[in-house]
Amino acid sequence: PADEPNPSLVQLLAQQAEAQLDGGNREAAEAAANRALALARKGLPAGNYRLGTPLVAMARVHLARADADAA
Question: Which pLDDT score, from 0 to 100, does residue 2 have?
Fold first, then answer.
């Protein structure tokens, strides 16, 4: 299923979010980062190093929205 935890999908979605952000598509970047982070949190234990990539992608989205506190 599409929302089943998959570490490779998490990484790809986070990378997609960063690429979309670099391309100026903040809305699509936020959607991809949200999905990556949700899947990562569903499938990985707290503190797992693989949470880093989607967290950084989401932080970049927040910074692009000028929301440094959320980042």
Answer: 59
